[in-house]
Predict the structure of LMBRL protein.
Amino acid sequence: MASAEQDALALREQLFHERVRECIICTLLFASLYILCHFIITHFKKHADFTAEHNDEDAAVNRIALGLCTFTLAVALGAVLLLPFSIISNEVLLCFPRNYYIQWLSGSLVHGLWNLVFLFSNLSLVFLMPFAYFFTESEGFAGSKKGIMARVYETSVVLLLLTLLVLGMVWVASAIVGNDAASRQSLYDLWEYYLPYLYSCISLFGVLLLLLCTPFGLSTMFTVTGQLLVKPRLLEDLDEQLSCTRLEEAAVSRRI
């Protein structure tokens, strides 16, 4: 019994250390992505976008919006890099199965990263980005005391109304598409059904927009490439060019 309790205690301790290690790795990865995205946004933004030296309140609002946009961009970049990271980590583990220093590339870590990316993607898509937009456009309710909190209250109310509107539209659309009693039920299963459904709908809209814009981008890319590159002259007849040059030279001589 004592050995079984020791084994169970050792197993729990090992699981605890693995969980702590995964949390540290996820935090370091997200911090690296956040710093990278911060440099990207501050490099491409205009100088007057997030700085308003004449008004400290506007400057604080713009800094908060910058932080929310940086967080969202970091989540998006993590979602893009997660599949290559999963493939590369699997190949590294297959090449070095007994190496102690790469055992942290486990399936539990990748699964945890997928869950975090899905959670933060929904959070950024539904709350953070609309909040950042409405927060920069808000001025506070009429008659209320001006300040950051007045803008926060107005933004929260507008975001709540927008959330109810979008969820109502999704509920009506699901009731129309799925003609059964389960699709007409109220919003009790918000987290398990409606948010993934909304996320899938917005992802589908993004894919359709990408398919619509890709041909124009490819045509522009090939046009610019054709203008920059020099076409090869492998199949041209040099004798014909020489005869044309002699005829032009003779015509110029007669004119002179």
Notes: The radius of gyration is 30 Å.
